[in-house]
Specification:
The chain is of the alpha+beta class. 29% of the residues lie in helices and 39% in strands. Strands 1-2-3-4-5 form a five-stranded mixed sheet.
């Protein structure tokens, strides 16, 4: 049975959270929302706050997962991060990351962490 985009996205976020935890990150929030903006994962590591966009694909038919992230999406991520930092001023250092996950038959074939994304 084919997964819906929502199910694929949820599975990808679950995989990303487990991956980040295994790399020493502490997950602080998942699907944090402010207005129309959403951050998939907010995590901390080494006294730095990480805002993480997760992209998951079931095939390469439409390109790699990370290639689907638009400038507009990254602007929304930045706006949400500014609000989060305003509400949590104890965080002085921020970083934006992307996790791209490719699934094959529902199993993560590739997990690609792109750290310190600038836009």
């Amino acid at each position: 049975m084919q997964q819906t985009n929502i199910q694929t996205g949820q599975q990808g976020e679950d995989i990303a959270a487990a991956f980040l935890t295994s790399k020493g990150y502490t997950i602080l929030e998942r699907n944090w929302r402010f207005k129309d903006w959403e951050v998939d994962i907010i995590a901390s590591r080494n006294r730095k706050l990480h805002f993480i966009e997760v992209k998951t694909r079931n095939s390469m038919r439409f390109g790699k997962p990370e290639e689907s992230i638009t400038r507009e999406k990254m602007t929304h991520l930045k706006n949400a991060a500014e609000e989060y930092q305003y509400r949590h001023p104890e965080w002085k250092y921020l970083q934006f990351n992307v996790i791209a996950i490719t699934l094959v038959n529902g199993i993560a074939k590739e997990i690609y962490l792109i750290e310190d994304v600038y836009f």
